[in-house]
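Give me structure tokens for this 259-residue protein.
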Amino acid sequence: MSVASEYLQLQRESTEEMVRRHAPLVRRIAYHLMGRLPPSVDVDDLVQAGMIGLLEAARNYATDRMASFETYAGIRIRGAMLDELRKTDWTPRSVHRKLREVSEVVRQIENETGADATDAEVIRRLGIDAQEYHQILADAASARLLSLSAPEDDEDGAALDVADQEGLGPQDRFEQEGMRGALVEAIGGLPEREQLVMSLYYEQELNLKEIGAVLGVTESRVCQIHGQALIRLRARMTGWREQGAAADSSKARKLKSTG
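Here you go.
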């Protein structure tokens, strides 16, 4: 069914009917997100937030978006869930600090060697044992606040978030597209196994257990590989985070001068 045909069909439905028909999408997205969140997060809270996102999507969908309603609604549902999670940040500051430290070490090693930083190199540079390092990787995979585009001292945002383009000015859109391009390039440069985990998790939407079955490894090992990929991406996106911080600072100065 074309986007235009779907839009005409949706026009004939009431908002309530659209929400009821696509409600299973909310639960599917909620349970997928739960795969990287701690047990303390209540899936019902995510579902409730997601239903609000679905309701907004049903009210605002228009054919000129050039995307199916399910694709559009999925973005709005995920955004609503992530907004809800941001309101109740569970990640200790110590976790953020350790993730930044490991990311910086990975960046240093890769700049020095021109090759992917290995576990052994990172462990040796940090002066910690393998058990502590693996715990940090698990935290990286679980912490929704590992922002790839935020400045180093910014503890807001979510892993691999894609910003909603609505409300962005031309310059903001240009910068966002540039960041996306850099992120795609950085993912393409990951070690093969890390690329595969990222693809299976974010594109195919498999959970960690399912990915483990594909790779023939345990769920905990998949969690570690996922964490390694996120930390490596954070290290390689440092330039974009610094550029974003500089841009925000410039905007703040302009606002202050015109205030």
